[in-house]
Amino acid sequence: MAKAPKNAISPTREADYPEWYQQVIKAADLAEVSPVRGCMVIKPWGWGIWENMQKVLDGMFKDTGHENAYFPLFIPMSFLEKEAEHVEGFAKECAVVTHHRLEPGPDGGLVPAGKLDEPLIVRPTSETIIGAMYAKWVQSYRDLPILINQWANVVRWELRTRMFLRTAEFLWQEGHTAHATKEEALFETRQMLDVYADFAENYMAMPVIKGEKPSWERFPGADMTVSIEAMMQDRKALQAGTSHFLGQNFSKAQEIKFQSAEGTEEFAWTTSWGVSTRLVGGLIMTHSDDDGLVVPPRLAPKHVVILPIYRSDEEKAAVLAFCDDLEAKLKAQSYDGAPVRVIMDDRDLRGGEKTWYHIKRGVPIRVEVGPRDVASGSVFVGRRDQTPKDKQGIPVDQFVSEVAATLTEIQNGLFEKAKKLREDNSRKIDSLEELKKWFTPKSDDKPEIHGGFAHVHCADVKEVEEELKKLKLTARCIPVDGDEEPGKCLFTGQEVSRRMVIAKAY
Amino acid sequence: MAKAPKNAISPTREADYPEWYQQVIKAADLAEVSPVRGCMVIKPWGWGIWENMQKVLDGMFKDTGHENAYFPLFIPMSFLEKEAEHVEGFAKECAVVTHHRLEPGPDGGLVPAGKLDEPLIVRPTSETIIGAMYAKWVQSYRDLPILINQWANVVRWELRTRMFLRTAEFLWQEGHTAHATKEEALFETRQMLDVYADFAENYMAMPVIKGEKPSWERFPGADMTVSIEAMMQDRKALQAGTSHFLGQNFSKAQEIKFQSAEGTEEFAWTTSWGVSTRLVGGLIMTHSDDDGLVVPPRLAPKHVVILPIYRSDEEKAAVLAFCDDLEAKLKAQSYDGAPVRVIMDDRDLRGGEKTWYHIKRGVPIRVEVGPRDVASGSVFVGRRDQTPKDKQGIPVDQFVSEVAATLTEIQNGLFEKAKKLREDNSRKIDSLEELKKWFTPKSDDKPEIHGGFAHVHCADVKEVEEELKKLKLTARCIPVDGDEEPGKCLFTGQEVSRRMVIAKAY
Prior knowledge:
2 copies of one chain form a homodimer.
Chain A: H1 17-27, E1 31-33, E2 40-42, H2 44-63, E3 67-68, E4 74-76, H3 77-80, H4 84-90, E5 96-104, E6 110-122, H5 127-137, E7 146-155, E8 169-179, H6 182-202, E9 209-212, E10 224-231, E11 237-245, H7 249-254, E12 257-259, E13 265-267, E14 269-276, H8 278-287, E15 304-308, H9 313-331, E16 334-335, E17 338-339, E18 342-344, H10 351-361, E19 365-369, H11 371-376, E20 378-383, E21 392-395, H12 396-424, E22 426-428, H13 432-438, E23 453-457, H14 462-470, E24 474-479, E25 487-488, E26 495-496, E27 499-503
Parallel strand pairs in A: 3-7, 15-18, 15-19, 22-23
Antiparallel strand pairs in A: 1-2, 4-6, 5-6, 7-8, 8-14, 9-10, 9-24, 10-11, 11-14, 12-13, 16-17, 19-20, 20-21, 23-27, 24-27, 25-26
Helix pairs in contact in A: 2-6
Protein name (chains A, B): Proline--tRNA ligase
EC number (chains A, B): 6.1.1.15
Keywords (chains A, B): Aminoacyl-tRNA synthetase, ATP-binding, Cytoplasm, Ligase, Nucleotide-binding, Protein biosynthesis
């Protein structure tokens, strides 16, 4: 076996967290920068995680009564202009299609030709184009609610991009619903927040705080935005999903009107909600370690990798026969309502190289099988949530019968570990001095490591937004769970009923 | 019950086939024209069919060793220019992004701003951007083959659009593979053609001819294009899927090079293959009738709709209890490897209206349950492949136990019917006079109804392309199955070894 490196990923999290993140993505072969500015290529292993996320979320959306549909990639510029705050929010960073063909230019190359009468915007989000259709579809209260989701790509021309977390093109789902009453729309907004929290905690093993955004952090055009916020291992916050109560703002801008049961004409109440490939970034930063990616079993493209080890043709025959049998037995086991996902890696590589390959990719369970294991009817098992050296010999039948329970244990363990990190790095803060201290880097050479989440009384006013900006801090949300806890705003002295989560953020 | 209309769709297929097609889409609520030129909105019922298509095809791709990945929406203009035939094929109809933000203009509205150094093309297909990545990934023969598929949206600025069949934006999958040898790439090209034919015939119940395109019908930049061709009910051909052997054209343009086992530097051999939302159009035109959509059960979003019928609250309680029980029993049945998909429609609509709603949407089996059925323990069953009047009383247990077999019978029956139509409207033709006669409309007021497919000896030369153009006919393909049958080209007299399928086409 090749000599095991001290750590598979260099630099470590402690040495340089942002660079560690890029290196984990590279080592696990999740994604790559593309030649198109700000756009990434999602490679098969990264796509496999996103595909599993989509499958689970899609089921959750359907279970809550939503259907999928598909709307155009392009939005006429005039549509975007209809809602004032909305266009303000997106005009500064959007891809604009102005021509519809290419022609030979004066110097031999091609030049854009066929100028469009009206420029088209590559959707940064689809409220305006979907709303235009809803205005046609909704006549009577009987046509409501409309509960539709779409899986799509969107483009926001971000200047500073980072794989999965912030890319010019990203993939997401966007739910868009229209309701007859404010109460229904509020229920929907909150219901989808709960769906996202359920997914984050129970599938991604990523604990989240559900809360309401202060006004300055709202989606452009929304009356209320709620979000789930997670703590990454560098104590920074990641907004992982948002759900917006749009009130009647978009329905008024787009004339989504209906005749009520009483015969009056009313504007519909709308919502929108979305999560994106950013979740893959959150998953990476929540669980991975200095040996590479760690994937929670419920979302892992593969649960178990079988690694046959042999030196002669004779050994090979016996080992492979044993491994084939093991693979079949594992696939016959059920985990999370489906067969256990197994791969066998019989590539002609040195054992150590192969083992590290799968450690770096975060496969939850590795099973090594050599001639001696075949003879004794046992396997050598390594778990991704334990150090690479912690391998254990187990009778093969026991391993197979316990595999689902082991995966559940890994899944739960990852959640508990992440939750503990958040709890250890969160505190209530009641003075400005204490707040500044909390966010001071622990030492000069580790500028990333600061306190974590601060739970602070803050008023939802402009002055607080500005003060936080000066401190290079962001308001994450006002948690919706738990009891009220009135107190005075740290900046303005105003009385508020709940604390707000303040953090550095992605 | 409302009086049944003579036909739910007006006009009928015979009266006006193209308009009938639009009306079926409308009546079944599959899709709608959007405010964005040439782009459609795919509504939930239409999306449900596409979703099922995706699921099956995705499984087939994985079973043949492919993985999914995702590449950028945008292609830098210079990438498109690298392969001469390719750019020639796509430059005339592409969406060009030239700016990356919007600014207030002189007259108050917005204008594009932030001009890009290099225009970006919204992908019409992704050979060039994917090839650029493969060039980075492939160094040695050990890195081959690369077997990747992506599910994506693409844009081709078509002037004349038609829902599903030809739209500016459409959804598709595009497989892109790279191989060390010509033989492997040819095998892949042909393998994916077989996958597409298997899907078309066994899931869509749409018989297809597998064949090779003559040179002038090839994909821009390909050495060989093979396709599946289906006959619609108006006797016209629909190209339903294509698989391209790209030789070394793209690998040379993009430098996808590798070191062989012998140490020499070689260019990779590449393929690409795709099917799109056009398949939904093919499905509609193959099976639907003058009462609306007919969906083959294997792709139907729902297999069975239960329609409770009652007049009083007392009847309602008994009927709904019976229906709930029936729904549970049906869902416990397995069809095509998964539970039977059932909906109950208890909306407050007149019985006839509700029944026709589901007929028009093509649900394979309708079950009506009234108080008398509850008393006798039977149900009233209508099949979408029979006329609306052909309803049958069946004991409920028998219906449930036979439901999977009935769905299979419907699926097979649709295939046989479509196959018979094609056979009845195909013939070998050996003279130019006969060919012209074959494609002459049967009567002046039905310009669409002509002979169908003509199997003709044609040489793969420019002259034939031009002569067919004059006759307003198209060369579909040279079928690859069956024995050779040498003969003289109808237009040039050259000896060719196989007949070519000639047809009017979509």
